[in-house]
């Protein structure tokens, strides 16, 4: 029998900000439930075929009591201190049939005599807690759940696939390999920074993947949550060239995406490009030459060597070469070149387009605390060759320069949204 994923849990702080973050992204909280005797409670977000459970500890004595202790939920709740796995994978089906040895857990909150088969290998808290769910139906078939409590209002139906980011020794563990063939497919990868993440590929009502829900751990011990529109890059690329009245050189988009994915990048990556494009889309009305601003964003860190100089100039030159190949006028080429050079951040941007582009590039400074913490760690990773004492001194100098400005953001819209948080983030950094 094929295993079906029933739900996925991750540990958060009690009633943590992750719940509100999911709501802010347009997702609907399906229900909350306490687990008397187990010492946990949850908030659940149900898709048509599985649900995401945000789980937190409510009672240490209960979580460490004899019936519960072997689940290691206590240790998992302390994942940020203990370097253990904060994830759980509940399946429908026969784990033993998949070659997984189990033990019988009798949760105090379930009816007497009802048990849950938990993988013995999950005794190692570095691995996810893998167990058989007491539930037997997809959320879409739950009798007590109405359509409005699923994620259909946000445009989502099924979860198409699940990716876990776990340390290398956990990613290759036999327990996770035993889940190969589960539906939807599960995969485990080992991020270079050993941080945990959970990514759900989300489908629309027609079964087409449109978004990825990305939950990534940060050095603060919280989760950075984002909803990635997988259609945005193509939409943005096509729009920019259409507005310019030009056809993009063949294969250029893929070459650019390849450049943004180079291994030396941690912050200046496709994540940053995607965040920039997502910020521009609702702000295109602020641009005088929207196609030029959008294309400048695609190229602004296209060349990036943390140990090199002239990255912006090389990126701007590449943009001009592409524009020339497409038949753009010299004036367009020069304006795009100037926009990219404005991201050196060594002078006040001149003109509406430059102010918008620079504001987008600096929006990360005003990100929520979890994303800013991730950004801080990503920048440090790009400069890992710099001694710690020197890096900290230079980083403080850079941030002090931004803090000394009368205003960090040049447009009123970005200033209202990001200025206050950016100053809080930078004062607390370093």
UniProtKB/TrEMBL annotation:
Start and end residues of each Glyoxalase-like domain: 5-94
Record-linked InterPro entries: Glyas_Bleomycin-R_OHBP_Dase, Glyoxalase-like_dom, HD_phosphohydro
Gene3D superfamilies: 2,3-Dihydroxybiphenyl 1,2-Dioxygenase, domain 1
Pfam families reported in the protein's UniProt record: Glyoxalase_3
PANTHER family linked: HD PHOSPHOHYDROLASE FAMILY PROTEIN-RELATED, PTHR21174
Name of the protein: Glyoxalase-like domain-containing protein
